[in-house]
Amino acid sequence: MTSNSFLRAARRTLTAGAAALLIGVATVPSLVTPAAADDGPASVADLAQGLLGAVVNISTSQRVKGTEGPGAVPMPQLPEGSPFQDFFDDFFKNRPGEQGNPSQKVQSLGSGFVVDAEQGIVVTNNHVIADADDIEVNFSDGVTLKATLVGTDTKTDVAVLKVDPKGHKLTAVKFGDSSKMRVGDWVMAIGNPFGLGGTVTVGIVSARNRDINSGPYDDFIQTDAAINRGNSGGPLFNSAGEVIGINTAIISPSGGSIGIGFSIPSQLALGVVDQLRQFGETRRGWLGVRIQPVTDDIAESLGMATAKGALVAGVIKGGPVDNGTILAGDVIIKFDGRDVNEMRDLPRVVAESTVGKAVDVVIVRKGVEQTVKVTLGRLEDGEKLASGENGNTDKDTGDEPPAVPTASVLGMTVGDLNDETRTKFGIAAEVSGVVITDVAKDSAAAERGIQAGEVITEIAQESVATPKDVMDRIAALKDQGRKNALLMLASKSGELRFVTIRMD
């Protein structure tokens, strides 16, 4: 079936549905003829027939230790010769945790699809094969092959398997371009949940760029094509028979499809699959910055016309931009030619970039747009570096330090950062600025979650070192007609974040 005929059938379906709805409103059911009522979409059998052979069932098994100890349920004492003796023997003595049966083999099922027939490469979800001891791939013609794990990526929930195709001809499908899919485009989901053969469902793209808080690179395609239990890891096809998504999750109170399913877009999955095949692991680009959203208040404080981009809250020591190329307080609005409209856009476009690549990054610094050149590091190395960057330097001597010069502003009491205040609040030696010694209850500062012991390092991207600096900067912002003050705060260990405080 061609793409055009697929879409023509869809249009006929929508037209018939709209007509039926209007007739229902007019309450004239006699106008619906049998021919019109039976006019559904043209068959998609030809399209499905060419794809079913590439969709496989993934069967996994795992040895789990039995439960022993206080939580174990003891076998009841039965009278000698009880007719229930055999039943309870089967139930209790074969339970995991009983003597002679210390573990149990647990099995699970999912779906996948072949992307390379010659090499025997199969793609599925990571959660389908996670912690499995044995993995088998069951094909629609009844053949079962043992699979080895090539690589997994927990961040995108993608896994790559390999089977030996010798003596068995495999059917493969290819990835399409998910970026070309529009809301309303028809799609087909195929799964092989129980090894009985493929199941086919048809629907449309309900939405794009969905963030369901499942990982750092959420960019799901939402579809109303039915995705049920065991369909995880199966492909979502466009009308040309190309894979534009990997079915991975549903929203459902019952476990069955209610028309809200999510697929990993091929634009994201393809790069992960290629890296897993080549390296057995992912090798993502890394910028080495901590970021936070640009809110309307922050945009106003920075003199930006619209709230967009990713605000750099800190630069990781030893990272790619620790040389001053990008600074805390910069707003990244474009990366390697791709717009960064929201904070969540940046991690994804950086991760999809090649390690060691030199890219242009467009930033807004103190209201001025400029372009800087950055050479990317590797995210997996950066995660190790970042995890060891912050230490806990909290100290509590129990002694009250002598009084220090203070000032009250915006619901905060601020003071000099010296040996006494460092000791009192456990502030690391490398942190500089003005310490917040108290925050008034129900103040604008309290509403923003500001706490005593945090350090103001900048106000409106200007460094402050004394309480007087803080007062002067706030007064200058008010004179400029600003409604909010943008503060860069450092935690006790030196981790930075930005907050805005109302000044009215």
Give an overview in words.
Its EC number is 3.4.21.107. Pfam families: PDZ, PDZ_2, Trypsin_2. Residues 383-398 have a biased composition (Basic and acidic residues). The chain has helices spanning 3-26, 34-37, 45-49, 85-93, 126-129, 266-279, 296-302, 345-351, 379-387, 419-425, 444-447, 467-479, and strands at residues 55-65, 103-116, 121-125, 134-138, 144-153, 158-163, 186-191, 199-210, 220-223, 235-237, 243-250, 261-265, 285-286, 289-293, 310-315, 331-335, 338-339, 358-365, 368-375, 377-378, 406-409, 412-416, 434-439, 455-459, 462-463, 484-490, 496-502. The protein has 12 helices and 27 strands. It has 4 domains: 3-43; 44-63 and 111-282, Thrombin, subunit H, CATH 2.40.10.120; 285-387, Pdz3 Domain; 406-502, Roll (Pdz3 Domain). The chain has 504 residues and is an alpha+beta fold. The model is unreliable at 1-38, 67-71 and 390-404 (pLDDT under 50). A hairpin with a 2-residue loop joins strand 21 (406-409) and strand 22.
